[in-house]
């Protein structure tokens, strides 16, 4: 063999491993790039679907009320014994209601004493009472105060006798 042929053989023998290494490196870089893009896309989806948990509910438990009810035959034994808890939107409202508790209880006693026993015996009557409680507590307790928002009224005791 000539020297020229030996040089060509050596170049070819070096060229194949170099091409293999370059091809392997290119495939590795491409695979890594695809993997990063797929993980980046999944990570943004989980951040987008993450929702903040709702704030903890604020409850204000009222003492039970016992009132005589309005009835057509003026029977003094028609009595309502009711206890309920107010669900409030924030801690400030709970603090305000607690600070003015005597006025809150007065408003509720006046409302409850105007109720009719026959109306309260029905489910619609109880739901109407819930709405009336929300309305009677809505006006500000003193001047220059915001209105009270009561999200819900939850009965804890309800005895109609």
Automatic annotation (TrEMBL):
Pfam families on file: FliL (PF03748)
Keywords for this protein: Cell inner membrane, Cell membrane, Cell projection, Chemotaxis, Cilium, Flagellar rotation, Flagellum, Membrane, Transmembrane, Transmembrane helix
Residues spanning the signal sequence: none
Topology with respect to the bilayer: Single-pass membrane protein
GO biological process entries: bacterial-type flagellum-dependent swarming motility; chemotaxis
InterPro entries hit by this protein: FliL
Any one annotated GO CC term: bacterial-type flagellum basal body
Location in the cell: Cell inner membrane; Cell membrane
Keyword Secreted: no
Source taxon at top rank: Bacteria
Chief localisation class: membrane
Job description of the protein: Controls the rotational direction of flagella during chemotaxis.
Family classification: Belongs to the FliL family.
Name by which UniProt lists this protein: Flagellar protein FliL
Species annotation: Candidatus Pantoea floridensis
